[in-house]
Amino acid sequence: MHFVIQREQFVQSVQHVNKAVSSRTTIPILTGIKIDASTAGVTLTGSDSDISIESFIPTADEEIEYVDIKESGSIVLQARFFADIVKKLPGDEIEISVQDQFATTLRSGSVVFNLNGLDPEEYPRLPKLEEDQTFFLPQNLLKDMIRQTVFAVSTQETRPVLTGVNIENNNEQLTCTATDSHRLAMRTAATETESDELSISNVVIPGKSLNELRQILEDTDERVQIVVTDSQVLFKFKHLLFFSRLLDGKYPVTNNMIPEQSKTTMELSTKDLLHSLERALLLSKEAKNNVINFKTLEGSVIEINSVSAEVGKVTEKMTCHSLEGEELRISFNGKNIIDALKVIDSEYVHIMFTGAMSPFVIRPADHDQMLHLFSPVRTY
Amino acid sequence: MHFVIQREQFVQSVQHVNKAVSSRTTIPILTGIKIDASTAGVTLTGSDSDISIESFIPTADEEIEYVDIKESGSIVLQARFFADIVKKLPGDEIEISVQDQFATTLRSGSVVFNLNGLDPEEYPRLPKLEEDQTFFLPQNLLKDMIRQTVFAVSTQETRPVLTGVNIENNNEQLTCTATDSHRLAMRTAATETESDELSISNVVIPGKSLNELRQILEDTDERVQIVVTDSQVLFKFKHLLFFSRLLDGKYPVTNNMIPEQSKTTMELSTKDLLHSLERALLLSKEAKNNVINFKTLEGSVIEINSVSAEVGKVTEKMTCHSLEGEELRISFNGKNIIDALKVIDSEYVHIMFTGAMSPFVIRPADHDQMLHLFSPVRTY
């Protein structure tokens, strides 16, 4: 293997595939990044067996030449050093060549690195997925949908299926759902499919995979193709493939959890509510249970308060944009509400309560593509 | 105690004094910030018994009114919560009042915090220092001098006096020295004094104190007054007092350590050398000893290399701006040299070697107010 490559493109590809590499793997070859040079270009692969990322740099793209392939071949190099090394090389180009025994030489400017490589034949092959269950989304929309749901997945391994985000796609409508059984976040969007009969359900992608994917997604409306199989999901970009395993198990049915009626409904400024709860959390966090108390007063006013026996208490009044229905006193985990308010980009939110002991719903005031559901906390 | 204060000024003062407060103190009252309201203004104090910081907000400054004092008095409030609370209050003003039993109320906008205060009579009084040993420095120069020396203090408690920076002031010349016995950083500057006979030596300020002070210092040439006593040092700003204890013990005499002659002298680009050593450190860090090898070649060229048995090796050649004297092969702790190069603001450095087994010196090429001394590492 022997090629000369533009450093900037190479660094970006290495950084992308490096996201899949874990230093804690039990399979030694997976601590490396695989480099394949062919006449078409250079392919980099990283994997921790849960996530695999493949990035391709073509020899040339329209008028720019990225790679000069002098000899095809493959090598695996220790990811931990390789990513740092290419970032710190001084030249605009990097020359990489493999000699006997996987000994690899990197040259850039007046710097020469001689690295001990690993046998590329040992590196596992990535799966070829059947592409019959597939749909498309703009990158920026996919990025939003992940941001607005993934924070609500469970971090506890007692019910593994809840550590993922559930994906359903019916009638060109995509629904992402995450819940840790105390709160639930749901986001819907229209998708494009190639077949009318596509129906995807119980596809649960690990939250960890989505958090890595989110870092690769860019704020562009270029499309991503999503391919679903029984055990894997693949996100296909222009020059990048992102594979993730799916979680086993039946994702709970969540539709029937969402209350259809409301006894107390209010509209509030998202930012004002967020800041008020953040202040209240300062004390409720100290009491270690994050409990914040919430009640309606006369004249469209609500009161938020929290107490820490050691430090003191905080009380805050806020005027609602609108407030209808029954009087209410309720307590909740303030941290969970704050997490949800942070991902709502709308100026106002609707909150729908169905009594002090029942789950309640927060939605953006200006669209119905997002919903957050919370259990109240019993304080007596 | 009862006053109304501009939030912005108050937040900044709280943040300043909070730097002195440690949550790990064994003296409960020191987990708090003391607030004193008098007719002149509001004074805040924080202390961990090593460092004490006092910040004063006058009632008014020229045309702006900062504080409206309604009743004089004092209180101590838990620093951990208080600093977060004032930062998150919504209004431009904060009203603070103390009721019975040190119960304290903070009001801002529609928010009310009721906090449990502590008895201000328990709070230790700050010392009144004799101001007969005193000199002056611009803030930005003091900030530079700290940055350029404090990184070299020892982090090991086996010789406590080396965990501080030694200050000497003779003939209006200030010298700051830090060493961990493997490397030494020295910085000098002209100071202003009020007496010709000022002679300060063996004044060792803990590195930790200087790191806190550095965060308060601003990039202005306004003067700071420095007051030295046998056991304490005081930095006096316009509205801020920063006290630190001094370290006990005799600071080593360092002047005679610095070689006066040089067998090999070179001038190099500071940035090129820094980046080259950073690349070499990638591998020598893995070998866990940070050892980098350095040698002169023909024609004003030097070679830098490092080896990790596991990962591989790196070799880099660099052309010197100038190179004079004997051939040289030397090994050193690359991390120490990198630390020093990072605080040298000059474009070029002079390196003066006196043989492979002797200490060597790095200086900025364009002034003689800074010097870094290093022991070589024996590799055979």
Summarize it.
The structure is a homodimer of 380-residue chains. The first copy, chain A, has 380 residues and is an alpha+beta fold.
Task: Write structural notes for this entry.
By secondary structure, the first copy, chain A, is of the alpha+beta class. Chain A has 3 domains: 2-122, DNA Polymerase III, subunit A, domain 2 (DNA Polymerase III, Chain A, domain 2, Roll); 134-255, Roll (DNA Polymerase III, Chain A, domain 2); 258-374, Proliferating Cell Nuclear Antigen (Box). Chain A contains 6 helices and 29 strands. Chain A has helices at residues 7-18, 79-88, 139-147, 207-216, 270-286, 334-343, and strands at residues 2-6, 32-38, 41-47, 51-58, 60-61, 64-65, 67-71, 73-78, 93-98, 103-108, 111-116, 134-138, 164-170, 173-179, 183-190, 192-193, 199-206, 223-228, 232-236, 240-245, 264-269, 291-296, 301-308, 312-319, 322-325, 329-333, 348-353, 360-364, 370-374. In chain A, a hairpin with a 6-residue loop joins strand 27 and strand 28. The radius of gyration of chain A is 25 Å and the shape is elongated. The model of chain A has no long low-confidence stretch (mean pLDDT 94).
Structural key phrases:
homodimer, 380 residues, alpha+beta, DNA Polymerase III, Chain A, domain 2, Proliferating Cell Nuclear Antigen, 3 domains, nine-stranded antiparallel sheet, 6 helices, 18% helix, elongated, Beta sliding clamp (chains A, B), DNA-binding (chains A, B), 3'-5' exonuclease activity (chains A, B), DNA_polIII_beta (chains A, B), DNA-directed DNA polymerase activity (chains A, B)
